[in-house]
Specification:
Length: 259
């Protein structure tokens, strides 16, 4: 494939073509071939070098070469310290690594400078970091922002509904907003089982425990390994007086959380 690329007029364009090829190889799972292409880059320009390091880290991670990937991580971290305006991909990569180690405050600090890009994927990730830190109202504000930017964003609708219910389980206005959001998500993608759990939980919190519990019970065969679903179902059964079933599912929460 590399030999078939048209000749580039200068070294910078040649490097970009190789980077484009290596990225496609990584996406197709041909990570060793991608590393071979990256090895042909020689000494690319500053911006191309950053992209090459990001791709090399991704390839090494996919190959489970943890120590080598860690060295690239340290190089990228040093580049960010030296130049905070470095390519967004560096911040995204380092934030993901921090989150993977449960260092959500660090991950948030790394990614927040990219918030002004208004990219839904970055905003959604930022919201998830806020959620892990217990900053649910900050996450809600971001989910609302994504929906304002793109009213057809189904994931943002579900995320908003779920987080509103988590943050304000006794607030009628919040639950009404959550209900509207999840109903939109279900209308757009009725096949998504997780949306049924979100709706069922909102119904339970809104006083419709029988209907919500029944809805989640129908969905649980596809989500039986999710402790949150068992928690929702356990609370639902408790509210309708089926205490044995409530204890069964609440016990499952503890077992699944341990695993």
């Amino acid at each position: 494939l590399l030999r078939e690329l048209p000749a580039a007029p200068d070294a910078a364009q040649a490097a970009l073509k190789k980077l484009a090829l290596s990225q496609r190889l990584i996406e197709f799972g041909w990570t060793t071939s991608a590393l071979d292409v990256l090895d042909t880059l020689g000494t690319p320009g500053d911006s191309s070098l950053t992209l090459a390091l990001i791709q090399r880290h991704q390839a090494l991670t996919d190959l489970k070469r943890t120590e080598d990937a860690g060295k690239i991580h340290d190089l990228l971290s040093a580049r960010l310290t030296k130049d905070p305006s470095v390519a967004p991909g560096v911040r995204i990569l380092l934030a993901a690594a921090a989150a993977n180690d449960d260092h959500y405050a660090d991950a948030l600090a790394l990614l927040q400078p990219l918030e002004s890009l208004n990219r839904p994927d970055i905003l959604t990730t930022l919201a998830s970091f806020h959620e892990h830190l217990g900053q649910l109202d900050d996450a809600i504000a971001i989910h609302r922002r994504i929906r304002q930017m793109d009213p057809s964003n189904i994931l943002a609708a579900n995320n908003l509904a779920y987080t509103l219910a988590a943050a304000h389980p006794a607030d009628k206005a919040a639950l009404a907003e959550a209900l509207s959001a999840i109903q939109f998500a279900i209308k757009s993608a009725p096949q998504v089982t997780a949306f049924q759990d979100t709706l069922g939980w909102i119904e339970i919190l809104s006083g419709n425990a029988a209907e919500g519990t029944q809805r989640i019970a129908r969905a649980i065969p596809e989500m039986k390994m999710d402790p949150a679903v068992h928690y929702h179902l356990g609370i639902g059964y408790a509210r309708i007086g089926q205490n044995d079933l409530a204890r069964l599912h609440l016990n499952d929460v503890e077992i699944l959380a341990q695993n």
